[in-house]
Amino acid sequence: MPTLNIEGRKVKVDDSFLSMSPEEQNKAVEEIAESLKITPQGGEVMGRDMPHTAGQTMESYEPGFMERMGNATFDTLKSLGLPAERMRRDVTNLDNTVRGVADSLSVGTSDEITAWMNSVLGGDYEGELKQQRAIDEAGGTYRTAGQVMGAVGGGAGLIRRGLSPAYNTAKAGAGWLPVLGTSAGEGMALGSLYGFGSGQGGFENRKNEALRSGAVGLAIGTAAPVATRTLGALGDMIAAPFRSRGTKAEKLLSKSMRQDGLTGTEASARLHEMGPEAMPIDLGANIRQQAEGLAAMPGNAQSVVRGALDERAAGASQRVVDATNEALGQPVNTLAMADDIIARRSAAAKPLYEHAYSQPVPYTRELEALLKRPATAQALRKARALAANEGIPSQQWFANVADDGAVTIGRVPDVRQLDLTKRALDDMIGTAKRAGNSNEARILTGLKNDLVGMVDSAVPSYARARNAYSGPTLVLEAMEEGQSLFRNPVTPAQVERTLAGMGASEREAFQQGARAAIADIMGTARNDANAARALFEKGYNREKLAMLVGEDNAAALINRLGHERTFMDTRNSVLGNTATPRRAEVMRELGGEVNDHGLLRNMMNMRFGDAAASMVRPVTRPFRQPGIESRNEMLARLITERSGKGGFEKTVERMDMKAISDAHRKALVDAMLRHATPAANR
After folding, report:
1. pLDDT, tens digit, for every residue of 280-326?
2. What is the DSSP string of 493-559?
3. In angstroms, rounded to a whole number, what is the distance separating the alpha carbons of residues 132 and 100?
4. Quick one: DSSP state of residue 58?
5. Minimal CA–CA distance to 187: which of 157, 242, 143, 224?
6. Dihedral, CA atoms, 389, 390, 396, 401, nearest 10 degrees?
7. Domain segments of the chain: what residues?
8. Taking a C-beta distance cutoff of 8 angstroms, is the pair 408, 402 a contact?
9. Residues near 604 by Cβ (< 8 Å), separated by ≥ 6?
10. Is there a contact between 76 and 68 (Cβ–Cβ < 8 Å)?
């Protein structure tokens, strides 16, 4: 594109200028000079000879590097057959737009700044200033559009940095009139600054321009809040018929449920299965991430989410206690329970023992050999002491034990005396076990079993009596063994074999001891449901639990612990401080933000619509913010509603109905297309 130099003013003209006759070119120069209010003394086309008439002195002018590069690029593109004219026109339009943006952002001083920078590089300031203003005057609508974009972008920058009084007033929740007043004042202040900066001439001219532009800014600042609300309401009215059913909060929930692969019916069923404390945020990662975003953003939605999770966590301890009592019954005192077992079994076995004690015992060589063993001799001494201490009536003691342990049998023993000997052996076995002397305990147990077996064979009523009541020592030992059931690596088969070898009182004590151990574990689960569930899932512990409380109760306990673990994991995830890219993305979505590449990048990529939108969004945000916060609060209440309350179920029912309607509509369209395709081919 040729450039004329008219009295220091550089003016670009179209290439058609070169095809004019000399007279037409001179006339064009005069008209340009007249419009610029200068008297032409000569002129030159940059880089080319320009015809001139007598009386005109042509001034020599050498184009700069960038201009030469531009001309060379234009000639190259043209020689290649590319649309060089259109491409140069597009670049010129872009240049005018950028200059308009710079004019607004610099409050009208961009021409002076550019002229000063060129003068520093060796140019004439006044000439450069005239040229910049001439280019600006020829900018047309593209420059005007750039000025609007720059004004909006400048306002957006003030908002982002917290320097906009109108935005700060709206954000603080002030009423309509304060927002209107601060917006009007801000518009007047910015307009005055622009007028003063863009004014030409001395201070007086700039002052007058500042007053004029300030009045325009006052009008725009006053109209902006009204226009924003009016346009927003009008847009809602126009878009309402085309919107799908459901609130904005429901749409966000529906989106996260689809990402989690959940239908409304499935979500309701899972909440019902998890119990009355379950919430939708327990159902999937995407719903939970929405809760994470809400909990991290200031506002009512944050309070709703955090409050609901904290309230549920506070009740976890009592829920675990209730579940334990439901499966096991009310907690009991194990020592008192042992005393009760002993008392009840003793009363039930008393008549059986009285009958057995009245029966004779055949004295055999095997019994004599057993009674003369060293360990049995020690038991005989203890048995005789037991009889004396308890005041048990009996015949004269049947055996004498010398100091060296030798046993002399003086008479045939009765069942009571042999039972006292068996009880003494029980005490000795318990002492050996507590001391960790397993071999001694094993030998003593063998002696006792041999003795009991001989008496049972001779007097069956003794076996029945002993089965009904095993004595305090064995009851306590059985209870202790039951309490350690979940800590010992025994199999269910071993447990069954152990129970089979116990009397009724021992079996009851074992079961009650194991139940007490479960209650202790569940007491720990109040604060650590994960640890309790992990214990029951370790090894054979689940099967052991089912043996004691029944399969249904065992499953109910373990499921309840699993749900409490889910509730705890949900709370830790939502209220945790770990920032993730996904959480940041959700927070942008919930905050009404979009992926914006910014004004400059959008303009450089020729996306002028996106560039304009990136400037408009921050300006309109104060007026959109109340709606965003209301939507987020509704979403927070939806995803933290307890199971069975009804609100969530109704919402997902509407979602499912809409999904069905959409599916029917799609099927109808597909059918129409299938029928239409053959017709179109005929």
Report:
1. 889 888 888 888 888 888 889 889 999 999 998 888 878 877 877 77
2. HHHHHHHHTS-HHHHHHHHHHHHHHHHHHHHHHTT-HHHHHHHHTSTTHHHHHHHHH-HHHHHHHHH
3. 12
4. P
5. 224
6. -40
7. 1-79, 248-314+578-670, 362-458
8. yes
9. none
10. no
